[in-house]
User: What shape does this take?
Amino acid sequence: MKAGILVVVVAVGAVALWMSGVLTTTARHLLISNVSAGPMGSGGIAAVLTIDNQGEPDRLLKVSSGAGDAQFLNANRGLPIRVGTSSLARDAAHVMILSVTEQPKDGTLIPLTLRFEKAGEVSVKARYAVPAPGTAAAHAAMGHGMTMEDVTDGPAPTLGLKIERGEAGWVAHIAAQNFTFSQELQDGDHVPGTGHGHIYLGDMKLGRVFSDRYQIGVLPSGKHLVRVTLNTNDHRAYAVDGQPISVQAIIEVD
Assistant: This one.
């Protein structure tokens, strides 16, 4: 009976993604969504996606594509995949396709094959879109990286980070001074000293931080770097003298 329920849940999830215009396949407990691709300034293709892992911790090892030579940006020994959601993102590790066999047109589906240490191969298709000129996506595509907001008036925010093991996995305790977390103001206009955080596990992006506590969850074994940055309501990185405000800690999982 339990196996039957699991099959139904996976099937429904796959249909929902198809109807939303994102084509994915699932590997048992993995669900891949928000798969998209766009141009890089070097002439290649960048792809991002979200991984929802409802099984055991895993590691993302390799990526390949029929569109060209695919590799991960910032992934030397594989990417840690926690239980829960994490993302390949423009401001973290993401797929780079170099030596593109043919420059895609807007709307083209780019095939990707992800190889996980435990789950094996998962095939997805990223819809290629050319960002409108002047947008943040266009800025990133040209290779300028994350935009920043340099703190020039008043005291600059500071960060502290402590990681502890809890009953439901690892927990990050974040101490911010001269800064107010606000989920309500996200996507709004910039208000000095207000915003949210971004948290990363290795080079995987875990999500946004809106309080002094973030549930990281269950992780694969090994040594992991956890990093937190502060961001404005409109998603720029807070910085001092051109350097993003961030803090990091290393944890070792048995």
Summary: Residues 148-253 form a domain with the Immunoglobulin-like fold (CATH 2.60.40.10). The two ends are 34 Å apart (CA to CA). Residues 1-25, 141-145 have pLDDT under 50 and may be disordered.
